[in-house]
């Protein structure tokens, strides 16, 4: 019955596209989490009256974040093509999309990390300092655990945005469900392919949201 | 021993420079409970943070445990802080950690092994009376229990000094008394020096040996608690003392008494120590042929003995009243004539 409803959907091609989307989303989400967290913590610690208060570093990091956050993703994708070619020796396939996905999403996430860290009670940081904690201890045992629910809900939002970005990356031949929906579905006027690809993207988004919500409520002991 | 020498702390704010601490000199003895009282903005929060290096003085020297806290940095300062603990008004516990994990945090910082940590945490839990709550999260505790966790955490690395930053100001009166009792118990059992800042005279009265009164960054008065209570000098100290003796709101009553009994004198008597237990008033009536009526009375227990105030209306021949007041002076009862009738 399914083959009658969706005559042009090929299981192997669909499976390949799902794999590529999940691959691109998960790798870029992990990298964005690490990079965005590092930048966010740097922004937080260098802000006025903080542990590493430094106007110049804070301003430069903030400016860099704002610049990369402002470039539309499609343009960033194209701008980074030479860099991608240098890195992977190819501008096709899921790997080719990764630099643009990470560089596009990390500044976005860094801002969310900064907001999450600002929500931490200043008194807790002061108490840790009064106990003789090093800055690294404060980062890993106070800042990250105390802001974890916000960090997780932030990465959930970012991961969902990344699913959307992977679809755009399909345009430069990165593969995935976006590529399938556009190149194979829309361009060849096979609307059933576009429809199935869209539904699967929605399912992926819902799964990410549910995982994010469950994790957030699990770590929140407030 | 703790010493603050010629401490000045200035801040630059949007509204120009601000001197938070202005030329303060203090010496605090070992195993003493020392109170610093003042209204908000008096500079006491800054002062207490100078003692563990959370703030550095603009000028002057801070010496705690023979270490110049005002002149050490980095690793040396961090290690020194493990011996000068602090508890806070809003407890400042990590909500992401259980009671046991919160108490273990300073031990982790000190680099203690997991097995030793678990044993030490259990000792501390027993010390502060939190048995059975080890696995609870701070959000599941009452204010008093949270402060007990704060105290256990502060005591974890066997400090020599405990700094209390308005530690009972967020608690209800009964819980405040429980926490104060715990602090006294710790002071007596462990010989810990306790320095606390507060705006409540009750806290000073209940547990402090000595007190310093701060106003606008300066220490305006300092001495043994009982002495300061008995003979407050600065106007602000008098206000704090009357906060405790309850004479603050009674001026209207005094006015009323004055109107109804236009003769005689309204006198405030201050009794300290053993005097509080002697029948001074009945002696007064018998010996000098005056009538004495009690208008207001109060007695409070301090660390170094009871302290009472009594406001009485003395009536009779003016010669007798004069003699009566002289007698009171002789028996070492402080007198203060509140108003002259006639």
Automatic annotation (TrEMBL), chain A:
Its main location: membrane. It is a multi-pass membrane protein. SUPFAM superfamilies: MetI-like. Residues 18-212 form the ABC transmembrane type-1 domain. InterPro entries: AA_ABC_Transporter_Permease, MetI-like, MetI-like_sf. It comes from the Bacteria. Gene3D superfamilies: MetI-like. Keywords: Cell membrane, Membrane, Transmembrane, Transmembrane helix, Transport. One of its GO terms (biological process) is D-methionine transmembrane transport. Pfam families: BPD_transp_1 (PF00528). GO terms for cellular component: plasma membrane. Signal peptide: none annotated. The chain crosses the membrane at residues 22-45, 57-84, 96-117, 162-181, 193-212. It is found in: Cell membrane. Belongs to the binding-protein-dependent transport system permease family. CysTW subfamily. PANTHER family: ABC TRANSPORTER PERMEASE (PTHR30450), D-METHIONINE TRANSPORT SYSTEM PERMEASE PROTEIN METI-RELATED (PTHR30450:SF1). This is Methionine import system permease protein MetP. The lineage of its organism: Bacteria, Bacillati, Bacillota, Bacilli, Bacillales.
UniProtKB/TrEMBL annotation, chain B:
It comes from Lysinibacillus alkalisoli. Pfam families: ABC_tran, NIL. The gene is metN2. InterPro entries: AAA+_ATPase (IPR003593), ABC_transporter-like_ATP-bd (IPR003439), ABC_transporter-like_CS (IPR017871), ACT-like_dom_sf (IPR045865), MetN_ABC (IPR041701), MetN_ABC_transporter-like (IPR050086), NIL_domain (IPR018449), P-loop_NTPase (IPR027417). Residues 2-241 form the ABC transporter domain. GO terms for biological process: amino acid transport. This is Methionine import ATP-binding protein MetN 2. GO terms for cellular component: plasma membrane. It comes from the Bacteria. PANTHER family: AMINO ACID IMPORT ATP-BINDING PROTEIN, METHIONINE IMPORT ATP-BINDING PROTEIN METN 2. GO terms for molecular function: ATP binding; ATP hydrolysis activity.
